[in-house]
Amino acid sequence: MVSLKHLKTFIIKLIHFLFPNYCQSCDKLLSQHDKNCFCNKCWDSIKLIKEDFCIKCGKPVITAEGICNKCKKRRFYYKQIRVVGVYEEILKNAIHLYKYFFRWKIAKDFTELIEKNIDKKYITNNDYIIPVPVTHKDLMKKGFYHTFLVTKMISQKYHLPVIRNLVVKIKQTRPQASLKRKDRLTNLENAFRINKKYKNKILNKKILLFDDVYTTGSTIQEISKELSQCKVKNINVLAIARGR
Ligand SMILES: [Zn+2]
Ligand SMILES: [Zn+2]
């Protein structure tokens, strides 16, 4: 008699045979042991930010106090940030496929990457995890809430409650990196609002804010500013990637 385990293996093999999937980087035919869209070998070449980095912007630099020179001059509404890897090659490609080409299964690989490379306590030492929000218009255009999907997976893995709509994005903004300094200041102004119904719930709590890519840091700064006005205890940030 065929056992359930054998049947499951057979079905997985059949699916892989019927719908072959190739590594988006080296074209190797992917097996069930590889990642979604990438083979393990390519995935393992992701440049991680592991030891020396700035605790405010995640930049991989060696600093005496843990803060880079640029961040020393700024005021922050969040406590610290951890970024998993450098936004280039495989990781950049993976984020693009995930966000713009509906390869939503990569969310699982991102979650595993976080689990493998970020200190567990950095995640569990919070009361809630929340995603960087998108506008309703973006959601309709993209078809899925990309930051929330990963947030939900992290929430399940670490038993950390997620609040999907604690922060709401109410204004359509342009990418900060594409703007002139003058426009950057007004672009994110009043773009986010805290959902009033959670105000008591988050009072004096630690919030872990998740974003996919850290670029200028203005988005997380603006959200943290709004949250800090609600008297949360502190805000920690987690992102998948950032530039060098
Ligand atoms: Zn490959
Ligand atoms: Zn910095």
Describe it for me?
The chain is 37% helix and 14% strand. With 244 residues, the protein is an alpha/beta fold. It has 2 domains: 1-45, no CATH class; 46-242, Rossmann fold. Strands 1-6-5-2 form a 4-stranded parallel β-sheet. Strands 3-4 form a two-stranded antiparallel ribbon. It binds zinc ion (2 copies). One zinc ion binds next to helix 2.
Quaternary state reads single chain
H/E element order: HHHEHHHEHHEHEEHE
The count of β-strands is 6
Hetero groups in this structure are: zinc ion
Q: Mean pLDDT, nearest integer?
A: 92
> How many domains comprise the coordinates?
2
Query: What fraction, in percent, of the residue positions are helical?
Result: 25-40%
Widest sheet: strand ordering:
1-6-5-2
Shape: globular
For the largest beta-sheet, the strand count, sense and barrel status come to: 4 strands, parallel
Structural class: alpha/beta
